[in-house]
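Board notes, transcribed. Complex of a protein with iron/sulfur cluster.
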Amino acid sequence: MNKDSIADIEITAENKCGFCTGSKCCSYFTQHVDTPRSKYDFEHLLWQISHANTQVYQDTDGWYLMFRSVCTHLQDDGRCGIYATRPEICRVYDNDYCEYDEPPEKNFKRFFADYDALHAYCKKRFKKWSR
Ligand code: SF4
Ligand code: SF4
């Protein structure tokens, strides 16, 4: 299918996943963390974000680690390799308005893509940040 023919097709919830390059929602997962307040808390986050493919964000529900890691069940054709027995969180996921429509980071209050971004924030937030 070429680009022109894709442009002619109405994207709906029913066909959207078929156009989603890399199956975006299967390419990362997140983990809620306690709201960091102290220097120690941020030191801990700096250690975590130092690991490859790890990011940190804050949204209206709090603070999260984001791991950019593709699910091992995602097949080359974009289908789920364990579709019939996939985890509940995958079953209830609603694609009405999903990562295909807008990158999640667009609605984050704060987003730290890497160590340097979080480190800069720490130095700004804590006047006596020593390192
Ligand atoms: S639910 Fe959304 S992000 Fe996930 S594969 Fe379908 S279109 Fe892509
Ligand atoms: S189990 Fe299947 S639906 Fe769930 S994240 Fe992995 S590939 Fe995607």
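Residues 26, 71, 73-74, 80, 82, 86-87, 90 surround iron/sulfur cluster (ligand 2) (CB under 6 Å). The mean pLDDT is 92.
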